[in-house]
Amino acid sequence: MNRRSGNTRAILLGLAPAVLTLLLLFVGPLLLALVQSFGHAPMFGLQEFPTVRFYRTVLGSRRFQAALWYTLYYALVPTILSTVAGTALAVAASVRMRGSRFLTFFIRLPLVVPYLVGAALVVALFSNGGLIARLLYLLGMIEATGDFPRILFSAGGWGIMLVYLFKQVPFVFIVVLSVLAGMGPEYREAARTLGAGPWRAFRHVVLPRIMPGIVTSSLLVFAFNFQSYEIPYLLGASYPGTLPVEALRRYQLPNLQRRPEAMAYVMVITAFSGVVLFLYLRAYRRWERSRGSL
Q1: 48-62 confidence digits (pLDDT tens)
Q2: How many CB atoms lie within 10 A of CB 281?
Q3: Residues 43, 289: Cα–Cα separation, whole Å
Q4: Under a CB-based contact definition with an 8 Å cutoff, are residues 235 and 123 in contact?
Q5: With contact defined as beta carbons under 8 Å apart, do 82 and 214 qualify?
Q6: What is the pTM for the complete model shown?
Q7: Contact at 8 Å (CB) between 214 and 79?
Q8: Which of 195, 223, 198 is nearest to 281 (CA)?
């Protein structure tokens, strides 16, 4: 009994630094934002707790509705594309063929580059005065660099998605490839021996075993995309912005008594992303139960 309690104490002490860091850097600020969003902000001259008028102001505005739509758009589309592309590349690299090692090395390179550097690369390549526009002008394919299609700073968000794909396809690739490496080639070889074609072997043998890696990586990618503000702020349109960008703009208003609106944005972002991730995990677990895995 003493030995068991000693092991429990050792585990708790080992987890204490990580738990305290999480409480100080995440849970604490989140609780402070929650309290301020309900009107308790004496540093801003507000003592209305509890009130929901800041939530009414935020949720009833057209800016919020547009921002919610574009946040989902900027989060879902890159998540789906990076998950599909990263998984396909990982499956291709797991098959030992000529050039697979070079493919693995090449895809890993963007992981060491920060997102802001990726944004600078996209601007240098795809802006109207960028390298691609100048090259097309020199080749006579466009009459002026200004004729190059507008990719950056538009509501379409193509520049944002290019940066996300540049960073997140390698991330999904590494996660899925590690799962494939742990699985080994025996399952695929057995399926092929029993007469299954490449697609059938992938669908019924490989995909169910790499699905945990796919779900984990796509969850992390979606959570980052939904709550990221720097890339949409730098490369997105001035209007409409994403929810994190709108929260930042509310926080930077000269009128300090409107800062609880920014905190309301923060809480909506947290709640909405949490609900989406919960529904995604629930759908995955239902799929696993339908296969008899759980």
Answers
A1: 888 888 899 888 888
A2: 12
A3: 51
A4: yes
A5: no
A6: 0.83
A7: no
A8: 223
